[in-house]
């Protein structure tokens, strides 16, 4: 029987998260993006017009995962340590993986407890990374 082509698509259902080398759960949501910062300057060719000039960028990271309690064992909010986060996603068939490694991660908030009746505990983390690289 032939394999369906749709199993080659990345659908976000098989994400995993490692922080400091420890797998902390199955990600229900994850994103790493480069945000470019701009400065607006006057356009000499157009009266009143502006030109956006790139001035730099930041690497933004956000993760939502189902808690296993492992995150309490990791000192991931220690600002004196370099924190590494690896986010992995695979296609429906599990035959292809996409992994991104973020170094020098700092998280913006630390949640001590968060629950909702009838729901599996999920932890949301957002912050910035010094560097981002694709892994093989």
Main beta-sheet strand count, sense and barrel state: 8 strands, antiparallel
Structural class given helices, strands, pairing? mainly beta
Fraction in beta strands: over 45%
- The CATH class name reads Mainly Beta
Number of helices: 0
Whole-Å distance between the termini?
30 Å
CATH topology label = Pnp Oxidase, Chain A
| Unreliable residue runs | none
**CATH architecture level-2 label:** Roll
What does this structure look like?
This is Phage tail protein. With 136 residues, the protein is mostly beta strands. The protein has a single domain (9-135), classed as Pnp Oxidase, Chain A, CATH 2.30.110. The protein is built from no helices and 8 strands. An 8-stranded antiparallel sheet has the order 6-7-3-2-1-4-5-8, with no helix packed on it.
Secondary structure layout:
Elements: E1 15-19, E2 22-42, E3 50-66, E4 85-90, E5 97-103, E6 106-107, E7 122-129, E8 131-135
Antiparallel strand pairs: 1-2, 1-4, 2-3, 3-7, 4-5, 5-8, 6-7
Organism: Fusobacterium ulcerans
Protein name: Phage tail protein
InterPro entries: XkdM-like_sf (IPR038628)
Question: Gist?
Answer:
The chain has 136 residues and is mainly beta. It contains no helices and eight strands. The protein has one domain: Pnp Oxidase, Chain A (Roll), CATH 2.30.110.
Short key terms for the protein model shown above:
Pnp Oxidase, Chain A, mainly beta, elongated, 136 residues, single chain, eight-stranded antiparallel beta sheet, 8 strands
């Amino acid at each position: 029987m032939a394999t369906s082509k749709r199993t080659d698509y990345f659908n976000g259902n098989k994400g995993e998260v490692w922080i400091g080398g420890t797998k902390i759960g199955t990600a229900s949501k994850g994103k790493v993006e480069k945000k470019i910062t701009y400065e607006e300057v006057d356009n000499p060719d157009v009266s009143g017009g502006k030109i956006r000039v790139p001035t730099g960028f930041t690497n933004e990271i956000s993760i939502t995962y189902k808690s296993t309690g492992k995150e309490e064992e990791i000192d991931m909010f220690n600002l004196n340590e370099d924190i590494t986060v690896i986010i992995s996603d695979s296609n429906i068939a599990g035959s292809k993986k996409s992994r991104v490694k973020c170094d020098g991660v700092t998280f913006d908030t630390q949640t001590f407890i968060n629950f909702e009746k009838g729901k599996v505990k999920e932890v949301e983390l957002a912050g910035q990374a010094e560097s981002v690289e694709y892994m093989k």
